[in-house]
Amino acid sequence: MLKKIRNWLQPPRPETGSPSTELAAAVLLLDIAVADDSIDADEVAGIRDLLRAEFALELGGLDRLIDEATQLLHAAVDMYEYARVLCQQLPVAQRARLVAGMWQIAMSDNNLHRHEEAQLRKLSDLLGLSHSEFIQAKHQVAEL
């Protein structure tokens, strides 16, 4: 009986395996875009540009990727799983470029919200970047 109650309270998660590197990056980029409780066309365009540049994605595949990432983001409890995939698959330099891209997205509306910056700091830590790499990424974007 306890097993039935446990299963009812915590249904088993389907075994889907780890997300692809591209999908994990898309989820983290979208997470920054929605950190201030809104997402605009400039942020979505920035995400599309970053994903296309970093992973050489086709336009059709890019739309499906963003749709899937949006669904995963809404269902996610935390970002650890997605950051873990990127840490395993990408070198530090590419993870730093993604964080710089996150800064671009956060600043695309010319208003860096405190929740965006806090979430960026958390994701940078999850991605295994040092504080100086985090700040360097910020300065790279601020100079643009």
What order do the helices and strands come in, and which of them pair?
Layout: H1 2-9, H2 21-33, H3 41-55, H4 59-75, H5 80-89, H6 92-107, H7 114-126, H8 131-142
Features:
144 residues; TerB-like; 8 helices; globular
State the helicity in percent bands: over 70%
Net shape: globular
**CATH overall fold name:** TerB-like
Low-confidence stretches: 11-15
CATH class: Mainly Alpha
Helix tally?
Answer: 8
Explain what the structure shows.
This protein is mostly helical. The protein is built from eight helices and no strands. α2 packs antiparallel against α3 (41-55), α2 (21-33) packs across α5 and α2 runs parallel beside α6. It is globular.
Brief characterization of the structure:
This protein has 144 residues and is mostly helical. It has helices at 2-9, 21-33, 41-55, 59-75, 80-89, 92-107, 114-126, 131-142.
